Amino acid sequence: MYLVVIGWMYVVLMMSVAEATNTTGSVLGAIVTFFLYGLLPVALVVYLMLTPQRRKAIKAREAAELEAQRAATTSTTASVDPDARGHAPGAAEADGIAPVRKEP
Question: What pTM was computed for the model?
Answer without folding.
Answer: 0.55
